[in-house]
Amino acid sequence: MPRDDDRSSVGQNLTIAFPFFDALFSQLWVNINGAMSFLSPISKYTPACAPVQRAFSMISPFWADVDTRDPGYNDGIYFRESLDDTDLQQAQTEIINAFPNLNGIQLKWVFIVTWYNVTFYDTQNHPGQKRNTFQAAITTDGIHSFAIFYYNNITWTTGDASHGVNGFGGTPAQAGFDAGDITHRLMIDGSCTSEMLTIQDRSNVNFPGKWIFRVDSSDIQTAGCTTNFTSTDILRISPTFVTTFGQVNVEVSGPCIIAENSTVTCRIYDPTQMPYVESEGKIIGTFNSAKVVCPIPFLFTTGRLQLEIDVSHNVNSSETTNSVYNGFIYVTEMSPDGNGLNLKVNKALNGSVDNTIFTWDPERFVNGTEFVDIQIIVFDLSTITKPVVKSIIKIGKKVENIGKWIWNYAEEEAEKPSLPFCHFDPTEIYLQIAFEAIEFGWDEYSHPDYRSHWLANAGIEASQFIGDFCDDWVREAECEAWYYSSGTTITIDSQPCPPTLEQAQVDLRFAPEFSRDVAFYHSGEDICYQSVAPSPNGGGQECCYKNEEIDCSINGGHSEERHPNYPFSHFIDDTLPWIMCCYKQDEEICAKYQAKRPCDRGANYTPPAPARGTGDPHLNTFDGYFYTFNGFGEFWILQNSSFQPLAVQSRMEPLNATANEATIFSGFVFAVPNAAIIQIQKSLIRIVDIYIDGQQLDITSPNSLKRLSMDGWQMIIAEDLSAIHIGFSIGFAFEITTISGAFGFSASASPNWSGKTLGLLGIFNGHQDDDLTSQNGTIIPLNSTLQQIHENFGLTWITTSETTLFKYFNGKTWDDYNHIEYMPSFSFDPNAVSNHTKELCDNDWACIFDYHYTGSAAIANQTISSNQIYNETVTALNKTVETCPQLKSPANGYFNVPNYFEGAKAQFNLATK
């Protein structure tokens, strides 16, 4: 950069847009005075030490009055953009070490600026004075973005024109980030004070002179701690979710903690381990970089759990202070595929167990892991409200980490372990097992390390092991004991199965099961669907299909005592009995399971009412009435009431500054009593942001959470973030589509909500006449004009600052999103548009409307697709499916029938046992 004073570079066009404070920037300016700006060059040489104007949206590693006019001291300012693998790998290593939950991130771009050996203004009055060297690197993968500050040598803080004397005093340098919106900024502690002289000795990553921050979202996230963190602030936890298996460390940051004479207790409020389960935390880093490492034990509840750290500090021999801070961690069950450890049981010709082969990828362990132990963990779930680890059985000691080990159980004699789940004992129907290969000698509690020290399998193969390893007669006896025990007959209150695959595919209350689940538990079935949310009593419904019809043969679906959202109770009440009764067992034995967990054949199925919204908002009510409403604000899609508990609000706003004659959906919020509130909103950077009770859910990090189950609902997120499926226990379901820059939605309502809905989706009662009922109860005629619908119906459903359910960010409020004075165009004439538009839309009115007002072919195509899907949904759900009367089980026998369609064959069998 040319030598000068108070100068900025020419604008640098960036190869990849840089996300900063929830905005994307494709140009930046490097300023001599220790900063970078994104909207215009910086003209000020004295740091503001207060929020800056919008034109100065900026990153400042050391904003102070730098002077490089004197060429005699080998000083200079250098910058470069890089896509070089070496630079990217170095940045990636720094970021992953600072933010462990981002392990796997692939950075694509880095911009590096170095202020080398620079002095303060006025160098002409004091040549050869004190010199500073520091560097800033900003980097991104296109979604996440980061800033890394390196301070090599800091000897001055203030220029002469900033009232400094000999480089000190006056208004010292500041370091940090400012969005330029008066609200969002983060300054490194000590900014604008003499403490800036020590910034090379401090750090937020426990490495003197190094500071790392995540900068893409509205709140800058420091890799370290915050000195003004209070007990009402929410802890940051990395990684943000764990499995029920636990056995990992999480990194908890927020308050700056004095490690000396302090201890930390970590508590997780797991309802099945009341009141909580706790472990000893470990403080790492110095004061500015302090974090707490919390070991996570086995957990028995999925969903969002409260994590608390209790910091006890001994002030002196007679005084101790305690500070308690809280955050949330999300807990999921382990994948059906396990977690990297595979196993297969081999049997001898006589049916006895010969051996079990374990395989794994040795490189999944930390580099240098030479040996592992292989063990079976046995959980006692007999009291599901208080599960415990019954035993840990080590079956392989100091096994070489080569990726394969054979457990020759048949050859073991003296050291043959006793496996409690393979002896006939009715109490052992309450056991669950998991397999683990763990690094030999590793102790998670004393080694705060986030890399992989173990692999496990608590999924299908662990369940299959019980079926293969235990003698058939033992499993049959266990099945008999379960069948005749009290409390195994269930009361079914789940949604009945759709009788055809066509209906299952469009009923939003159901979602496809994992293919591996289907292959193991329902061999021969084409596909199975699972009720998305638990029933009011916690049950579930599993529906399997063959040749596009419901199939209730021996391998078909079942009603479930406990929905899979409750993995441990589901295992004990539904999965383990199936292993005992049906896995490689005779049909007669399996019939006992089917009697207790009957397959629903769809005879009582009543389809839900579909609704949807798309494009420049076009809506179909639950009764099918189609209309268009271009509101600019937040509106009630469904208003809750004393007879309907679900509240749904939508946000509508113009697509952009030029397409302002119509609006699109840009956000939704869902609330049901005694459950967490879900907020989904459009993001320029991340496609979509999801908030749970106002806290952002991490859905963009590598291996981030894509399925979340909580009391009252379950949410399934598409891997590419194109769709978000939410099912509610009370019988509503929604799917939000996020593509094309404009959200759309599909909805379904169970028939029991007929006559009980209010809002933009109308009064669901099978009659369209009252669908345009305003909030004050006035019914608007169905043949009303666009303007009449807008003014007399749509606007009446706008929320207020008191009734809104939305949380607001970036300093915005309800007033920023709600504009009742906005008037869209009401003069649309589809006949006046170009032939190109008509051809693009195949003469579809809604598509033509959207393309005309937005100019977006993507939104127009989304509308066509939504129309097609909606019409297919209505057709499928309205089909009448005739079934024969249900058969009764014979005395002293059982029968097998796939379904009750005409032509289906029923096979009756006499009991032989």
From TrEMBL:
Keyword list, A-Z: Disulfide bond, Membrane, Transmembrane, Transmembrane helix
Record has Transmembrane as a keyword: yes
A Pfam family assignment: C8-3_MUC4
Residue ranges occupied by any NIDO domain in the UniProt entry: 61-218
GO terms for biological process, alphabetical: cell-matrix adhesion
Matches recorded under InterPro entries: AMOP_dom, C8-3_MUC4, Epithelial_Barrier/Signaling, NIDO_dom, VWF_type-D
Ranges of residues in domain VWFD: 609-805
Domain of life of the native organism: Eukaryota
Keyword Repeat in record: no
Boundaries of every AMOP domain copy: 462-597
A GO CC term attached to the entry: membrane
Cellular localisation: Membrane
Protein name as catalogued: Uncharacterized protein
Taxon lineage: Eukaryota, Metazoa, Ecdysozoa, Nematoda, Chromadorea
